[in-house]
Amino acid sequence: MISRLRHYRAAFLLVISSASVFWVISYWFPFNDYLAVISGEQYKDYEFTIKTFVVVYLTFFLLNIGIAGLFASKVSSTLKFWLAIGPAAVLLLTPFLLTIPISAKFPDRNYFEVFQALYRLFRFTKPDTFAWALIFSLIAVGLNIWAAMIVRRAGEVDKVSAKFRNRYLIYTAVIVVIAGAFSAVNLYAASVRSLDRQSCQNYERRALPQTDEEVNTFLSDVMLYGQSAGSKGVQDAFVSFAMISRQYYAALDSEIDDASLAALQQNVVQAKDTVAVVCSEFAAG
Asked: Which residues contact 266 (CB under 8 A, 6 or more apart)?
């Protein structure tokens, strides 16, 4: 009975491992948009690398869930061990191996500079998101190795009483609910990022006004980008930029003193810089 219970516990670890990897995967939602971006001319030289990375993470996520189901069965513990170790090894080695041919193209850069730059292509453009992508990936690898060690020590499965089987079915349901809630939160965060990305891309593509008559239309568009953004930070940045700019252009037609006008102009510059900062996260498409 103890052996079967250990196999159940290993299965739980694999489910949590998949949930950890889902955090990384969520940065590519919606997939159609991301695939369209990486298929563009800008990423032509890296398209194969990016798609390989994405496929490895997606395969790991789906495969791990299927393997977790096998861990609750009477499949050989040796097979279970390799089923857990194999995907973990691929997930761990893939980013490092994919960096090698790219690093060779930039002899003036060290390997880890290229490694971090490569992750920018996967939308981990900020130091903290880059760090979390590595952390969640390593957590997933570690959990798979832990699960493999558990089944190796447990040996072949034995019978378990109905009492303990029902208890572990409840544990399974709890783990699934927690993993599902974690995934749902990540899906929501992905939808927010998608709205922010769209607003920033619309702003980037928007031509600057060439005449005074075009200014109002431009600022109305900027306001719209802010209102349609997903996160409060991006919303506030665009809305503030539009409102402060309106104040500045209104002051140009008034009898405001030069010092006050210069202060307003500086506020416009700062507001524009804030937009650039909040949108820098989405520079990789």
From this structure: none
Given the structure tokens 């303990």, which residue do they identify?
Answer: 164
Do both 104 and 244 map to the same domain? Answer: no
- pLDDT value of position 256: 79
Q: How far is CA 13 from CA 79, 86, 177, 215, in A?
A: 17, 15, 14, 57
CA distance 252 to 243: 15
Tell me the pLDDT band of 261, cut-offs 50, 70 and 90: confident
- Quote the tokens at residue 221: 């568009």
pLDDT tens-digit map of 166-204: 777 787 788 888 888 998 999 999 999 999 999 999 999
Domain count of the fold of the chain: 2
**Looking at 160, 180, 215, which one is the last position of a domain?**
160
| Tokens read off for 60 | 């790991």
Contacting residues for 183 by C-beta, under 8 A, at least 6 apart: 19, 22, 26
> Does any domain span residue 191?
no
Could you tell me the two tokens for 8? Answer: 């159940």
Asked whether residue 173 is assigned to any structural domain, the reply reads no
- What CA–CA distance (Å, rounded) separates 27 from 3? 38
Report the pLDDT value the prediction gives residue 61, as an integer from 0 to 100.
Answer: 95
Q: Which residue type, as a one-letter code, is found at position 88?
A: A
